Each structure stands twice: as C-alpha cells, then as structure tokens.
Amino acid sequence: MSIKAVDLNYVYSGGTAFEQHALFDVNFEIQDGEFVGLIGHTGSGKSTLTQHLNGLLKASSGALYYNGENIYDQGYDMKKLRSKVGLVFQYPEHQLFEIDVLTDVCFGPKNLGLSQEEAEQRAREALRLVGLDESFYRQSPFELSGGQKRRVAIAGVLAMEPEVLILDEPTAGLDPRGRDEILDVIKALHDGRGMTIILVSHSMEDVARYAGRLIVMNHGSKVFDGTPKEVFRHYKELETMGLAAPQITYLIHDLREQGVDLDADITTIEEARDAILKLWSGKKGSGERHV
C-alpha cells in the first residue's frame, strides 16, 4: 500500500477575486505501515493536503495515487477510497449525533452497505481498539468526557476498517490525561496492527516521540521531509516558519554550549534522560577509578 502525490496543486475559488493558491507542486510517497507526522504553521496547507488524501478535495492539477491507481482517473471508486483512507477531523466529537455510542460507531459501516449484525461486529471491535468496553455502548456520547468522546469518534472511523488513518490535531482541547490516552491509542494502532498513520499536529514533542518521519509544510509547499532528528536539525529555519523544535532540543543545545558532551540530535525527554544518566555514570565510574 502506498499514497503518492505528484506535483499536487490546489487553488481555492479559482478564477475569482478570492482565488488562493493553497498547495504548490507537492510531491511525496507514504509507504504501508509508516507513522508520518505532518506539521506546519496555521495556513501552511497541511489540512488542505490531508483532505486530498481521501478525495474530499480534488487537486487543481497533479496526480494522487493510492496503491498505484490515480484517484483522478475516470471511474475511480471514491467511496472505496474513503473506506480505506480514514480521516478524523479536528474536534471529531462535534460530529457525534446518534442516541448511543454503539449506534454512532455503526453509522459508517451501515453506510457502506453492511447488515446491522456486521456493522455491530465492526463497531464492537473498533470500540475495543480504542479502549472502550461494553459499559459505554448504550451511553449517550454526549455524556462522556472529552477524551472518551474523541475515542468514540476515532472508533467510528476505525469501524470502516481503513488501511490508512489520518488524524488532524487529535489531541486539541484535551487535558493532559485525555491527550496521553488518545496518543497511546494511536500508537497501539500503529504498533499492534501495522496501520499507516498520518498525524497532523502542532506539538513538536508529540511528533518527535511518535512519528518515524516528518513532512513539513510552509505556505503550501513541502519544505522538509525526513526523520524527526533530520528535520529538527533545521530548528532555526523552522522558527522562521512559526515552528520550533521540541523544548528538550533547546536544552540540549544549551548544555552543549556549556561543554556537556551530549548528542545534538536528542529530540525526546526519554533520550535526554538516558544520555545524561549514561554520561553521569561514566563520570562517576571514572572518578572511582582515580580514588
């Protein structure tokens, strides 16, 4: 499975006084099982780009391939694409509307033409994947906590059995506990089921910790594409785009300037902890040998 964008351009309100070029010649390929972080300042084009990946928006020019097929070819089955490339919008709980949790999660599968029994089977499995047991099934989704609502909304997309899951700021507005719960669910889907994840986020800490690859958008163009360590080496350039590196990166650079021998590519708190403990134990061992 792969998603491939070739010279993708998108213009809002083309040919009018309100014309706005949102994407400029965007090229990339995402392989099966990748965990990709998509980052960029507000207005960078990242949300517009994600809506192209399952056909909600059609490029003004260029091509988009899913499993080797151009989705813009005549007769391409967009309904099938949208069942395979699931998109969870920002604040997806605003789209909850059914009388109870199970019925809400059943909506997508039933819309695909599945029977009530098949839809419920998928819904139960999806709710299990996001960590909600049967005690939640007959509750109104509006009675749940923010994090629980978010999990129900994600389950609604998972019940469609997508191969790719795109999440646009899935932790926005959640408290720290709810945020960690949602990120743990996403990580489990990737690690346990091999699902391809595309995570749109403003949190550099989150993408550094979870993503294996980052795509950076700025003014509608792709400017960086690489591992988090490769991308965050350009933290000064990211700052000019309204972005930054994880906070720990700045601390590591400050320590290095003071002569502490730490790897400049450290991007997570866990890496920093391990490196500092290793450095400390090495110095302690060296001191003991001189006693």
- Strands in their spatial order, largest beta sheet: 6-7-8-3-9-10
**Proportion of residues in helical segments:** 40-55%
For this structure, the CATH topology of the largest domain is: Rossmann fold
Proportion of β residues? 15-25%
**What is the second-level CATH architecture of the largest domain?**
3-Layer(aba) Sandwich
Structural domain count? 2
- Span between N and C termini? 60 Å
| Class based on secondary structure composition and strand pairing | alpha/beta
| Average pLDDT figure | 90
Low-confidence spans: none
Q: So what's the CATH class of the largest domain?
A: Alpha Beta
Oligomer: single chain
* Rg (C-alpha, Å): 22 Å
How many helices? The count is: 11
Map the helices and strands.
Elements lengths: L1 E11 L7 E12 L3 E5 L6 H8 L7 E6 L2 E2 L7 H7 E4 L12 H11 L4 H14 L16 H13 L5 E5 L7 H18 L2 E5 L3 H7 L2 E6 L2 E6 L1 H5 L2 H6 L6 H11 L11 H21 L2
Parallel strand pairs: 3-8, 3-9, 6-7, 7-8
Antiparallel strand pairs: 1-2, 1-4, 4-5, 9-10
Helix pairs in contact: 3-4, 3-5, 4-5, 5-6
